[in-house]
Amino acid sequence: PGIKVDAGAKPLAFCPGETVTEGLDNLPRRCAEYARLGAKFAKWRAVIAINEEDGLPTTTCIEANAHALARYAALCQECGIVPMVEPEVLMDGV
To answer: Which residues make Cβ contacts (< 8 Å) with residue 36, sequence separation at least 6?
Structure first.
C-alpha cells in the first residue's frame, strides 16, 4: 500500500504559468505515521510545463521542484517508505 503525500501544485512566485509542489511541512511526522499504519511507498508529483513560446520551464521552476522532490525522497527513506518520484512534464507549447 502507498499514499500520496504532496499538498498539490501551487503557483510559483515570480514565475507566471509555473508551479511548485508543496507539502514538505510536517512530512517526517506524517511519513512516520503512514509507515506505522503500513504504507510501503509514497508518491509526490511535480508538474513542469514546457512551452517554448513562453520560455518555460524556467531554471527557477526546475530547481525549486527538483529540490522539493529530493527532500521528499530523503524524508520518506528516513521513515522506511519508498519514494515514488514523479516529475510530470506537460508539453503545452511545442
So the answer is: none
What cell was used for 52? 517554448
pLDDT digits (tens, 9 = 90+) for 22-76: 999 999 999 999 999 999 999 999 999 999 889 999 999 999 999 999 999 999 9
In this prediction the pTM is 0.89
19-21/9-11 β-pairing = antiparallel
CA distances in angstroms from 47 to 8, 38, 65, 91, listed in the order given = 9, 28, 8, 11
C-alpha to C-alpha distance for 79 and 39, rounded to whole angstroms: 10
Report the alpha-carbon distance of residue 60 to residue 50 in Å, rounded: 13
Amino acid identity at 57: P
With beta carbons less than 8 A apart as the criterion, state whether 34 and 5 touch.
Answer: yes
